[in-house]
Write a structure and sequence with these properties.
alpha+beta; about 20% strand
């Protein structure tokens, strides 16, 4: 991290000349402005402004209708971007550059915009803190690395995609050595940016990588995840390669996930651990996990926010298909890790690599809080092949998940009606856009045959 006083010194001696002033958008991307560092330390550190459509666009930055917060009728006004100087950090992969994240405020009231991803997660963290708990989380980033650059792939129409390797490279040191020209600067630059990087490894497919970051409080974890994802794209580009966080870029390849590990701590100690329990699970943990399971359909749209997200949920691919929990089973939607130890935690394996970590974790925390408040009883763990059976299925499509999100009384109480309506509309926009498109699959399958 970087203090504001240190930044002023670095600006004065010419070490830093650029400040990235960023907000996190609905899709989990960094949006903002590049400030001359001299102007930033002279006054822009207090606030700047952006168009309010930045929290009401789709992936392609189109401005669909149907949002209450902004529209053509309202004229697309401003939001205030309020730099959170506690997030100030160097950006080692860009020369002379530092970054700061912003809270997004209403231009007139100067209150936080409720559907801002940072505000949504912050609200759930504060609810737990009021109960005496600190949510500790970690996310895993899986992605595919390709031979060609973003520009080359875009100009080809995203066809004939070739991963950087031709073999399944899960834990394969020899293969990942060939990719160190990309992965080494990713690890080192992010470490030097203040992210507690643990390791990278090859994942279970050709060209698939994984980056692991040490657990932290939920707000920091979301920040680490967002910055790391941004950096991976920029560093790969610098090395002449493209990456994708699309959960399922090819039907014959396994997908990319972003598992979320979570536990609650109290007074600096893990509150999920109970040494008297056969598995080491405290009653609090059982209530929390029961809430995760009961309300999983409600927040699935936050874990799987796009049409493509649902292509990943296939049997035999290590992606889950059912909302169940099991002990150290990598095919269950919820996996109990660290059994019998203070490291005990629950890993949610449903989110894909396309999730916005602020939204996904907010949904999980809200569900866990509901489980605690309702005193929910945790069912027995599922054993054996958890792909067998047809109970507790993950919603099949974004259309289904959006309907469940819209009708969620739990999330409306936890997040607010305006937030639920806003992100329901975001899901509907994705469905409507896809429904308009004639795909290559339809033409190839039916052109001559229908």
């Amino acid at each position: 991290m970087l203090s504001f006083d240190t930044l002023k010194e670095q600006v004065a001696d010419g070490t830093v000349d650029t400040v990235l002033v960023c907000l996190v958008d609905m899709q989990g991307r960094l949006m903002g402005k590049r400030f001359h560092a001299g102007h930033f330390v002279a006054g822009a550190w207090e606030e700047t402004h952006c168009c309010n459509y930045l929290l009401a666009t789709d992936l392609q930055m189109a401005t669909p209708d149907g949002y209450e917060s902004t529209s053509w009728e309202r004229g697309y006004g401003d939001y205030v971007m309020k730099p959170d100087l506690a997030t100030l950090r160097p950006v080692p992969w860009l020369e002379g550059t530092v970054m700061v994240l912003c809270d997004v405020l209403d231009h007139h009231t100067h209150k936080e915009v409720p559907h801002s991803p940072r505000a949504i997660l912050k609200k759930q963290v504060q609810r737990l803190q009021a109960m005496g708990y600190e949510p500790m989380t970690a996310t895993e980033l899986e992605f595919f690395l390709f031979e060609k650059s973003f520009d080359e792939i875009r100009k080809s129409g995203y066809r004939d995609l070739e991963p950087i390797s031709g073999v399944n490279e899960d834990y394969n040191i020899m293969q990942t050595s060939r990719e160190e020209h990309v992965m080494r600067p990713i690890r080192n630059h992010l470490w030097n940016a203040g992210l507690p990087i643990e390791n990278s490894k090859g994942e279970a497919e050709t060209g698939q990588e994984e980056l692991n970051i040490k657990y932290a409080n939920a707000m920091n974890t979301a920040e680490f995840h967002t910055i790391a994802k941004h950096a991976i794209k920029e560093i790969a580009h610098q090395e002449g390669h493209a990456v994708t966080f699309l959960p399922k870029w090819s039907h014959d390849k396994v997908g990319s996930s972003s598992h979320v590990h979570q536990s609650l701590w109290k007074d600096g100690a893990p509150a999920f651990f109970d040494e008297s329990d056969p598995l080491g699970m405290s009653p609090l943990m059982k209530n929390y996990m029961a809430g995760l399971l009961k309300y999983a359909p409600d927040y699935t749209a936050f874990m799987a926010p796009y049409i493509n997200s649902y292509k990943r949920f296939m049997k035999g691919t290590f992606a889950p298909t059912r909302i169940i929990w099991s002990v150290d089973n990598r095919t269950a939607g919820y996996r109990l890790c660290g059994v019998g130890s203070k490291a005990i935690r629950v890993e949610c394996r449903i989110p894909g690599s396309d999730m916005n970590p602020y939204l996904a974790m907010a949904g999980m925390l809200a569900a866990g809080i509901a489980g605690i408040e309702e005193g929910l009883e945790l069912q027995e763990p599922t054993k054996g092949d958890v792909y067998q059976g047809n109970t507790g299925m993950i919603p099949n499509t974004l259309r289904d998940a959006a309907v469940t999100l819209k009708g969620s009384e739990m999330l409306r109480a936890a997040l607010g009606d305006d937030v639920v309506d806003h992100y329901t509309r975001a899901a509907e926009v994705e469905v409507e856009d896809f429904d308009r498109v004639v795909t290559d699959y339809e033409i190839a399958r039916g052109f001559e045959q229908v």
